[in-house]
Amino acid sequence: MAWVKTIIPLSSEIETEEARLIAEELLNYIVDRTKAGKGQDGKPFPGYSPEYKKSLDFKIAGKSPGKVDLTLSGEMLDSLKVLIAQRGKIVIGYDKGDPVNEKADGNISGSYGGAPNAGKARDFLALSGNEIRKVIDSLDAQPLATQKSISNQSKIAADRMVSNMLFSLDEEGA
């Protein structure tokens, strides 16, 4: 069984705490984008096969023939998790040995139990550099060096403000 995951490189300047935040946001982004029927860079997934559209599973699930959103049972997207979030790397996917790996692999490779077929592939885990940057920018995540610089500049400015204040105490307040 294939182990389905996507590895997202991060700047080594991004601390583990921020990597965790970014990872959770990327996971949410993947799930929301997939539920909207879109893959990498907002491209729609390939349509359902005529056989699947005629199946009982398709009818029971109340699927729409025109919208492919990979949510027949919801299990595949619900099982998706952040596997690693650390300095330099995020890994999003499924636990090794999770039976959902097979279903996810079938969607990503377009195999659905047969040979891989790029024309049927729905790689819902793929993220472009633009998508990753968009998510990170929305969080205003800053490398550690930048955070320290901002913190130091703020401290210096606060110290200057305090040293420039004039304090006067009247005799009653003393």
In short:
The protein has 174 residues and is mainly alpha-helical.
How many domains, as an integer? Answer: 1
Shape: elongated
Order of helices and strands: EHHHHEEHHH
How much is the radius of gyration in Å?
A: 24 Å
Low-confidence stretches: none
Largest sheet strand order: 1-3-2
How many angstroms separate the termini?
Answer: 77 Å
By oligomeric state, this entry counts as single chain
Structural class category: mainly alpha
Largest sheet: 3 strands, antiparallel
What's the average pLDDT?
85
Number of strands: 3
What can you see in these coordinates?
By secondary structure, the protein is mainly α. The chain has one domain. 44% of the residues lie in helices and 9% in strands. The chain has seven helices and three strands; from the N terminus they run E-H-H-H-H-E-E-H-H-H. Strand 2 and strand 3 form a beta hairpin. Helix 1 packs across helix 6. The termini are far apart.
Outline the secondary-structure elements.
Blueprint: E1 5-9, H1 16-35, H2 50-53, H3 56-61, H4 75-79, E2 81-86, E3 89-93, H5 100-109, H6 129-139, H7 144-164
Antiparallel strand pairs: 1-3, 2-3
Helix pairs in contact: 1-6
Keywords summarizing the entry:
elongated; 44% helix; mainly alpha; 174 residues; 3-stranded antiparallel beta sheet; 7 helices
